[in-house]
Design goal:
Helix content is 28%, strand content 29%. With 276 residues, it is α/β, with parallel strands linked by helices. It folds into 2 domains: 5-10 and 174-232; 40-171 and 236-275, Rossmann fold (3-Layer(aba) Sandwich), CATH 3.40.50.150.
């Protein structure tokens, strides 16, 4: 394996804030691995376990008094694990995801909902169309400030006047390890990133205002390398509330999760219900 040491040296410098790496969601091989993680029932990787999803769906449904016929939009719906359950309760559901592989799976399992394969940051939908807009499993945290504020404006426009934006965010507790994270591992038989033998260099970067970057350099036997990045801006109730208020959301409830668990300072997640 040829290793490009110059590239590796340069990659150890913290990248500009929210500079993306190579796209991964529609890479044909990686997308299949991601779908397998979404559908796994013994872990909370990519999606939560079915029993937790059921609890979340029930709590949102009951807390918001979602009767049959109400309209729900799920941003970052993945393979439709939440959308399908809400549709089974009689809601009119629209799911949006950038992964064609996930959308194809969702459509194969749920003919009652509408699915859109698109980046939700560039989505154009009618005003006042939804009773609930939902964004689950920390997708809100990957957005830059401008993307976040643009999305919050769009969600307000898509919601009916008495509608609710329901989402969850990670807290600094979950990603604190990235401040000093640096490791590597090899996969001679292939693995998540490719079916070819490869080695991965992992590194974390910490920025002000609780922004973290998780970087992966994937090097294969033929000497090629690909750089991937996951970005996270972590929040707490004290930091997410003023952002929501500045964007026109005046009724805000926060929890440890989207099952109504009271928030504590040790929480790694924060569930939010925000209304105009």
């Amino acid at each position: 394996m040829h290793i490009d040491l110059k590239t590796i040296e340069q990659s150890q410098t913290p990248p500009p804030l929210f500079k993306r790496g190579a796209p991964m969601w529609n890479d044909p091989y990686i997308a299949k691995q991601m779908l397998n993680f979404h559908l796994g029932e013994s872990h909370d990787i990519a999606s939560r376990r079915p029993e937790i999803i059921n609890t979340i769906v029930t709590w949102i449904h009951d807390t918001l008094s979602l009767s049959a016929g109400k309209a729900l939009l799920d941003l970052g719906c993945g393979p439709g694990l939440y959308t399908r359950r809400f549709a089974q309760r009689g809601l009119q559901v629209t799911g949006v995801d950038f992964s064609e592989n996930s959308i194809d799976y969702a459509m194969s399992q749920d003919s009652d909902s509408t699915y859109i394969c698109q980046d939700y940051t560039s989505l154009d939908l009618p005003d006042n169309a939804f009773d609930v807009v939902m964004m689950i499993y920390g997708d809100f945290c990957v957005l830059s400030d401008s993307e976040r504020d643009n999305l919050l404006a769009n969600v307000r426009r898509w919601l009916k006047p008495d509608g609710a934006f329901v989402f969850d965010v990670t807290t600094p507790k979950l990603h604190a390890y990235l401040e000093h994270h640096r490791t590597w591992f090899a996969k001679p038989e292939g693995g998540f990133w490719t079916d070819q033998p490869y080695m991965v260099l992992e590194q974390g970067f910490a920025y002000p205002e609780q922004v973290r970057c998780e970087q992966f350099i994937v090097m294969t036997d033929d000497g090629s390398h690909t750089l991937y990045r996951n970005w996270y801006r972590d929040y707490t109730p004290d930091t997410i509330t003023p952002i929501l208020q500045a964007n026109g959301y005046n009724q805000i409830e926060t929890y440890t999760d989207l099952a109504g668990t009271p928030y504590t300072d040790d929480s790694e997640w924060c569930g939010v219900i925000a209304r105009q």
